Amino acid sequence: MSGGTDATTDERRSPLHDEHVALGAALTSFAGWQMPLRYTSDLAEHTAVRTAAGLFDLSHMGEIAVAGPDAGRFLDLALVGNLSGLRVLGARYTMVVQPDGGVIDDLVVYRTGEQEYLVVANASNHVTVLDELRERAAGLDVEVADRSAATGLVAVQGPRALDVVLATAGVSADPDAPADATVGALRYYACLPVRFDGVPVLVARTGYTGEDGFEFFLPAEHAPALWRALLAAGEPYGLVPAGLSARDSLRLEAGMPLYGNELDRTTTPHDAGLGRVVRLDKVDADGRPVPFVGRDALAARAASAPARVLVGLQGLGRRAARHGYAVVASSAPDAPAVGTVTSGAPSPTLGHPVAMAYVTPEVSAEGTELAVDVRGRREPVRVVPLPFYRRPR
Questions:
Q1: Closest Cα partner for 220 from 154, 170, 157?
Q2: Do residues 316 and 381 lie in contact, with contact meaning Cβ atoms separated by under 8 Å?
Q3: What pLDDT was estimated at residue 10?
Q4: Are 159 and 55 found together in one domain?
Q5: Per-residue burial over 212-222, b = 16 or more CB atoms within 10 Å of its CB, e = otherwise
Q6: What is the C-alpha to C-alpha distance for residues 92 and 86, in angstroms, rounded to an integer?
Q7: What is the distance between the alpha carbons of residues 137 and 214, in angstroms, rounded to a whole number?
Q8: What is the 3-state secondary structure of 323-365?
Q9: Is the CB of residue 255 less than 8 Å from the CB of residue 391?
């Protein structure tokens, strides 16, 4: 059932909905969708991704096709990154911002041809991003088309991800792909057309867990068959289906921002420590600076001292900080507030609580000891570098 609607909840269902039900998944409401929260336990699914592999349904994400002679120029004007300079079959993390620099959404953009791109937006912002892109395309020779309802998205993440993909029955080379391009040789943040049972599929070496992994974009009606094939191929390697709960704890350990937590319309990329994605140096064909939306505001922000800094916090006790909790200068009852937690949870990999928080610059140095107000009790924390976890090389 692709992009369908549940008559009782009025929420959309993934094309993999029946697969999740058959596997006994606990379903939850997320961005207007019914999605799997977990299948067995959060800890088991998280650990499988860190040690073997996990299989995720990401079909709730928004896929927007951008094509035409002005496609690259348009994305340079509409987004903060230099997308016209992206190689064919490359991928780039970028953002769409307001004129004042506030983040509307963070995106991954794939260049699928000389004049073709695929923009992947967060589920909660899919319609907003689509509307923004269509408005910003006015006067340019470019088509902006929503492909979300017709697209299934399945991800394999973990140290055994490549083994799983190479063992999956039905996955084969695409006759139109470069002759020397293979899934095994695919670089990080690159993509490749392949076939699954003869159906065109775009596979990308990208992810949101901090591990190696692959994401498969394919027609929604073929997603269940690919899901089952990946599960079967992955069983000898320890692959398990994983839900949104594990996805969130994995991305937190990897220090990856979540829209609505670390990023929102009041936050610039620089506030979130992601100023590197803003390309103030991009120029047009005549060598002039590209006047992309938000450029002036972001140039001013880049040149100014920060009012707040996104930091990692290591919990020194056992109680985890959570989104919205106050960060205070010390455990003393009268210690002033110095920031706010954006994401927090116990870290299954590290064995102690971790959190990300915006704090004032004077308390942002590594090693600074602070506290978080956890339901009226001040729990000690220490500022540590992000990410909390890096996969072994």
A1: 154
A2: yes
A3: 79
A4: yes
A5: bbbbbbbbbeb
A6: 7
A7: 31
A8: CCCEEECCCCCCCCEEEEEEEEEECCCCCCEEEEEEECHHHCC
A9: no
Quote the tokens at residue 223. Answer: 């997603």
The pLDDT tens digits of the residues spanning 278-321 come to: 999 999 989 999 999 999 999 999 999 999 999 999 999 999 99
Residue closest to 308 by CA, chosen among 334, 273, 277: 273
Ranges of the chain with pLDDT below 50? 1-8
340 and 228, same structural domain?
no
DSSP 8-state code for residue 106: E
Split into its structural domains, the chain has a count of 2
Alpha helices in the chain (DSSP H): 17-22, 42-51, 71-78, 126-136, 161-166, 223-234, 244-253, 295-302
Q: How many CA atoms lie within 13 A of 89 on its CB side?
A: 16
pTM of the model as a whole:
0.96
Q: Which tokens in the block code for residue 191? A: 């993509």
**Domain encompassing residue 213:** 4-61+150-253
- The domain that holds 341 is classified in CATH as 2.40.30.110
In a domain, 40, yes or no: yes
Residue 118 to residue 213: CA distance in whole angstroms: 19
Structure letter (DSSP) for residue 259: B
Which tens digit of pLDDT belongs to each residue from 313-337? Answer: 999 999 999 999 999 999 999 999 9
The model's pLDDT over 146-190, given as tens digits with 9 standing for 90+, comes to 999 999 999 999 999 999 999 999 999 999 888 788 999 999 999
- pLDDT the model gives residue 2: 33
Write the CB contacts of 217 (distance below 8 Å, at least 6 apart in sequence).
Answer: 63, 118, 151, 152, 153, 201, 202, 203, 204
Report whether 370 contacts 352 (CB < 8 A): no
